[in-house]
Design a protein that fits this description.
By secondary structure, the chain is mostly helical. It has helices at about 5-15, 25-40, 45-70, 85-105, 110-135.
Length: about 140
């Protein structure tokens, strides 16, 4: 599968799986992120096919968790009254569980070197997400 076909298929899968209510930027962002991960990890075609649904599910789950706490990461919006310590901790536990599940699944797909790089990518994404949430203050 060529890189162009991978990008096109990934974009179509994300588009089909995303709600139609004006989330074009999220769809574009997800497709771009998947391509970045594939490039940084130098994935084989088989790895791309195995990893794509895992990453799509992870992004979707993280978005759903944030939304359930009133956080719109795309627009940097968060609850008007603040999140509160209990909710912040609960949200962190939920996001950590998604990350742990993702790492467990991904560890069986990637080589040891790729897995270490994936963990770095995930840490960068987590930092970026925190900054985007804080930006809404």
């Amino acid at each position: 599968m060529s890189k162009a076909i991978f990008v096109a298929v990934t974009f179509m899968v994300i588009l089909a799986a995303s709600p139609a209510s004006g989330q074009e930027s999220q769809v574009t962002d997800a497709g771009f992120r998947l391509e970045q991960v594939a490039a940084r990890l130098a994935l084989s075609d088989e790895q791309k096919e195995a990893l794509t649904p895992v990453l799509e599910n992870t992004m979707s789950a993280q978005h759903d968790i944030l939304a359930s706490y009133g956080i719109d990461i795309e627009n940097g919006e968060r609850p008007a009254q603040g999140l509160g310590i209990r909710n912040a901790r609960a949200m962190k536990r939920e996001l950590d569980a998604v990350r742990a599940d993702t790492l467990e699944t991904v560890s069986g797909i990637l080589s040891a070197e790729q897995f270490e790089e994936f963990k770095r990518i995930q840490a960068e994404r987590q930092t970026e997400m925190r900054e985007r949430i804080k930006g809404g203050r």
